[in-house]
Amino acid sequence: MATAMVRAVAVLIIACPCAMGLATPTAILVGTGKGAEKGVLIRGGDILERAASVTTVVLDKTGTITKGMPEVTECVARGAGWHTRTGAPDPREVEASAPTDNAELLSLAAAAEANSEHPLAQAIVRAAVAAGAPFRPASQFEALPGRGVRAAVEGRQVLVGSAALMRESGVDVAPMAVESARLTALGRTIMFVASAAAAEGESSPAPAADGLAAGAILRGVIALADTPRPEARAAIARLHAMGKQVVMLTGDHETTAQAIAKEVAPNGEIARVVAGVLPGRKAEEVKAIQAGGRVVAMVGDGINDAPALAQADIGMAMGSGTDVALEAADIALLRPDLNGVADAIELSGRTLRIIRQNLFWAFFYNVLGIPLAAGALYPWTGWQLSPMIAAAAMSFSSVSVLGNSLRLRRD
Questions:
Q1: Does residue 60 have an active-site annotation?
Q2: Distance (Å, rounded) from C-alpha 258 to C-alpha 248?
Q3: What's the pLDDT tens digit per position in 195-230?
Q4: For 115-158, what is each residue's pLDDT tens digit?
Q5: Which of the residues 46, 60, 226, 313 is marked catalytic?
């Protein structure tokens, strides 16, 4: 009876599943804490585990690959009696529009963009303030997602946006085609500026049926450059070295997108560049990649990125982004550093390895210890496991799991 009691107590003690219960939560706890130290805020353990399976990383360009703080680099006006390249009169334009110069062009664009929160709009406003261009009151502001803005400035409709917006509004961009092509080839983002050709004191033409200004003519183009983040090149190369497919999404023109891609991925680390993507299509692009069997992590920072962040298997938002993007994301990169994407994926992989190790040793401990505690060796050796040794072994197994999990704190 005494022998049976000793063995029963030893089995009961050594079979205590503390190590099994600690194997996963301790690793996740340490992993999420380590992520927070690196500026990677992970919403839950399931997300930390899922990040290791990512095969494709989709990067939004503006504010993610680039700083999101574009600057006006060129202001090219089309006006009567003035030509940007030669400084000589251009007779063809005298009849086409009222006189326009750089200050006038910048003033019109800034007035229309003053109520917009888009980084490009804010850059135009900053440039107008810095240049001392006259600021005019605007009304009837309307943001046209992925295309630009429309507003009434001093009684006339003003359009600022992409070539697509100009075409929809019936504005001929041909007079500035050479300039826009030259600037686009330099990697600039082009914003066309058009306004209604209303004479002084005359009411502005009524908006067309689609809500855009009718009778507007081209006034010029404003070129902006959004420089890449200093760490972007190294971070993208790191993701490529990890075997991840990198895709860049942007609403910019194809030439501009390719210029940025070559700058940050000169050796082809970016597998695909998808340009001219309207905000509503970003989630569709992510869904299309997922349909190909890929596990997608989407990285963005703006309101327009929120649907794509929600659609992706793992959504990552830059800490410098909007509240909407941060709310939609699974992982928030608290520092404006693209290396946080690779850090999160690497940390996830290390955490899963630690969890597997913990579970193996906890299971191996029980498989080996329970038969010994039950007296498996007693018939041949006369040896049986003392309950005190069983208690020490059980404690050691829990300590070993905790110690193994704490290895995640090491870089």
A1: yes
A2: 10
A3: 886 544 444 444 444 444 456 789 999 998 888 889
A4: 888 888 889 999 988 888 877 888 888 888 878 899 998 888 89
A5: 60
